[in-house]
Design a protein that fits this description.
Blueprint (H helix, E strand, L loop, with lengths): L2 E6 L2 E6 L31 E9 L4 E11 L16 E5 L6 E5 L1 E5 L23 E4 L10 H4 L4 E2 L7 E20 L9 E9 L12 E7 L3 H4 L4 E20 L5 E8 L10 E12 L3 E7 L17 E5 L13 E6 L10 E6 L9 E7 L3 E10 L3 E9 L2 E10 L5 E4 L3 E3 L2 E9 L8 E9 L10 E5 L3 E2 L2
Antiparallel strand pairs: 1-2, 1-23, 3-16, 3-28, 3-29, 4-15, 5-6, 5-16, 7-15, 8-10, 9-14, 10-13, 10-14, 11-12, 11-13, 17-27, 18-19, 19-27, 20-26, 21-24, 21-25, 21-27, 22-23, 22-26
């Protein structure tokens, strides 16, 4: 068995690097179906369930987290709405169908905070709706603030004295859950905004200073690798918004520049599309495939059931769902199928080629923390053997910087020290160097768990079966 190592806070830590074995996922519909008893229906009050087979990557795991992402709307009856508090996860003996136990689970709705290429402040020439408007505290006549809505050039503040503000009026209140700011520089490191608040409001008399402004994100004191050429994303729970502004408190040397302040709606209405992730800690030792059923129901006359957050939670994001924050293009992103990768539906991963000596491998994820606690952040990765620089940002602030080392060319799991994370919607960024060699950096999955005792070797993957209706 090979060994891998990584450095955290300057200390070299040793861990296992396991040669991956070819694993065949086994589920309830396998070839010897006649020998498999149907699991008993253990939650009689819930009308629906989805069988899920959980397997390893070829190495055993102890109390490891797993998740499934599903669209539950097609599974419900006509006119029914998903009850987000109804989820239960039960394990069964795959041979006898006997109930083995219940695992506390976490359901998190998915509203896809990276909704696509069309922000609300863009407008087609033939769109009869009221055009968005943009105002600023000052502007360079050669680079006016209207560039933020006309997609032509960029805005540069005219005054030399901070703070500087630029705001967009959408013309009406819209449902919003994402803003992407595009800080710029002049190629010599000047003009880049490096201390910024992003704020939203539903009311404003002048569209810029007056109103019920609320801070939803931003960034503070970020150095060149995190700013130059990078989109700065802000994600939050969907809310009504008419006005969006960037308040810039400092800039690198000269008046700041913004190439965009793009405002996005949720991809879909969660009342119309109940897509979500169900995650749980698989109890005990896992070496062979194990069978679970996810139970759920619709909202009854009394309304949704209370949502209970388990004591131990796992928030898992697949790397192919990462937000591409690299602008302009210059790093090659690809969502590649690989049988050795994880995935709630298909085993995809994020594969990145770029310059070996540049600290820019941006992989960003929106994560919803269900309770304030100390979390371990772990990610599964492979690439060139040797050292790789690592920087981690949370909501635009650096929370970790260090080096990890890969030995060999197989998958490793790198775990960061415990970090206290606040309840709510956040954006998590990973920046890395590719290291010396000709391999890409393959990024598979990132996991946040508030159970310090968990030590993930390679992780678990899940394969959902066909949904079932209570007989």
């Amino acid at each position: 068995m090979q060994r891998s190592s990584w450095r955290l806070n300057g200390e070299l830590v040793r861990g296992r690097l396991v040669l991956l074995l070819c694993v065949v996922l086994v589920h309830a519909g396998r070839s010897d179906d006649a020998a498999v008893a149907a699991p008993e229906w253990t939650h009689g009050e819930l009308a629906y369930r989805v069988p899920v087979t959980v397997s390893t990557f070829g190495v055993g795991e102890n109390d490891a987290p797993v998740h499934v992402r599903l669209n539950f709307t097609p599974m419900l009856g006509e006119g029914e709405k998903l009850d987000p508090g109804s989820f239960r996860v039960v394990e069964y003996d795959a041979r006898t169908g006997a109930r083995l136990g219940e695992a506390p689970c976490l359901f998190q709705p998915v509203d896809d905070v990276w909704p696509g290429p069309q922000p609300l402040n863009w407008q087609a020439p033939d769109d009869p709706a009221a055009a968005p408007n943009a105002v600023a505290s000052s502007e360079n006549p050669e680079h006016p603030v209207r560039a933020l809505i006309e997609r032509d050039g960029f805005w540069e503040a005219g005054s030399a004295t901070p703070p500087w503000s630029a705001a967009i009026d959408l013309g009406e209140i819209r449902m919003v859950n994402a803003i992407m700011a595009r800080p710029l520089n002049d190629g010599r490191g000047q003009h880049a905004p490096n201390d910024v608040d992003i704020e939203v409001a539903t009311e404003s008399g002048d569209g810029l200073t007056e109103g019920n402004w609320e801070r939803v994100g931003g960034w503070k004191g970020l150095s060149a690798p995190y700013i130059f050429g990078m989109l700065r994303p802000v994600f939050f729970s969907p809310r009504p918004v008419r006005y969006v502004r960037a308040v810039i408190h400092s800039s690198t040397g000269q008046q700041p520049r913004l190439g965009g302040l793009d405002v996005y709606r949720p991809l879909w209405n969660p009342d119309e599309r109940a897509e979500g992730r169900v995650s749980w800690i698989v109890p005990g030792r896992t070496e062979q495939p194990r069978l679970f059923c996810i139970y759920f129901g619709s909202v009854g006359e009394a309304g949704p059931s209370p949502t209970a957050v388990p004591e131990r939670v796992a928030i898992i994001q697949e790397a192919e769902e990462a937000v591409n924050t690299r602008q302009p293009s210059g790093v090659s992103f690809g969502g590649k199928f690989d049988a050795s990768a994880s995935g709630p539906t298909t085993p995809n991963m994020l594969s990145v080629f770029w310059k070996q000596d540049v600290f820019r491998f941006p992989a960003g994820f929106a994560v919803t923390i269900p309770r304030t606690d100390a979390y371990t952040i772990a990610f599964r990765i492979r690439g060139n053997p040797g050292d790789h620089g690592l920087g981690v940002l949370l909501d635009g602030s650096e929370i970790y910087q260090g080096v990890f080392c890969l030995e060999g060319q197989d998958w490793n799991v790198v775990s960061l020290p415990l970090l206290t994370l606040e309840e709510g919607v956040h954006h998590l960024d990973f920046y890395m160097r590719l290291g010396a060699g000709g391999l890409p950096m393959d990024f598979d999955v990132v996991t946040l768990v508030n159970a310090a005792e968990l030590a993930i070797n390679q992780g678990l993957r899940a394969k959902p079966g066909a949904p079932e209706v209570r007989p």
